[in-house]
Amino acid sequence: MNQETIVSTRTDREIRKTIITPGDYNIVPYEDSRCRISLSDIVCKNDTGPCDIETECVILSSTFDGNVVIGDMDNFIDKDFELILQQMCCGETCLAKIVYRNNQNELVKEISCGIHLKDVTEEQLISDWSWNRLYEASIHHKEKGVQLVKEKRIFDAFRRFSKSFKMLVAIEPIDPEVIADEQVKEMTELRVKLYNNLAHCQLQFNEYEAALKLCSLALKNDPENIKSLYRRCIAYAGLHMYEEAWADIQHVLQIDPHDKAAKLKANELRPLIKKVNEDYSNVIKKMFIS
Question: What's the rounded Cα separation, in Å, for the pair 269 and 255?
Fold first, then answer.
């Protein structure tokens, strides 16, 4: 049996593997490679003994079909398995161990199992993809992200939206002789949606400056976009920039006077903007008092 090696390590998690049977060193999975694997002797435990595996985990679930597309997983355990697979060779069998710890360095979970990488279908490098494939991949990751938001898995959704954006940017520079104007318009609309979705994720973690920048980028492409204006309003308010927040929410109400969320936000901001104006008036008055 070969010596145990470290696949990846950080303060809260360490991944190790030991090669049992070597594989073909000429075939190694990378981003978007399709892998067929089998698992054996799965053990999940903590200090008290056997423990449950996260329900969102696909690879260790009872319904797992043995197929993995590298880079297309969302659960943190699945993504750690992807890291292991990317350091395996086709045909290899290894013993893998993932150890998770909390901030006090206490054991949270330890997962161990045998992995047999049966087959790897090599894919083109992303840099060699056609614009059509990049665009389809961008839509795929965006839709996955939307579903994750519905499941309230915001961190995983942010990662999907980021990947979608990466695929979209990879199409640039756009060749007008290859990509028609209508398709360019669709790409711009997708870009705006991604900016908005990324901003939504940032707002869930009170990252107001990041959300503000994303919304402003969206508005450069679509100045009348209600979601961008509304979310930038929230970001401004979170940064106590109430006048800017008020301007954005009023812009929303000019576009759609019946927008319920905008009306509620305007009512919430009204006393704050009133105080800002009163404070400003008092400062001006003091300037002219002898």
Answer: 18
Q: Tell me the CATH number at 165.
A: 1.25.40.10
Residue 240 domain boundaries:
126-284
Torsion of CA 43, 46, 50, 53, to 10 degrees: -70
What are the pLDDT digits (tens) for 159-176? 999 999 999 999 998 888
For residue 36, the SS3 value is strand
Beta bridge partners of 96: 17, 113
248: Cβ contacts below 8 Å, ≥ 6 apart: 229, 230, 232, 233, 236
Burial 68-84 (b: 16+ CB within 10 A, else e): bebbbbbbbbbbbbbeb
DSSP state of 126: G
pLDDT one-digit tens code per residue, 11-40: 999 999 999 999 999 999 988 899 999 999
Residue 290 lies in a domain: no
Total domains, the chain: 2
pLDDT of residue 94: 97
CATH number, position 65:
3.10.50.40
Report which of 154, 170, 216, 213 is spatially closest to residue 31, judged by C-alpha positions. 170
Write the pLDDT tens digit of every residue in 50-95: 988 888 999 999 999 999 999 999 999 999 999 999 999 999 999 9
Adjacent-strand bridge partners of 18: 95
Contact 252, 234 (CB under 8 A): no
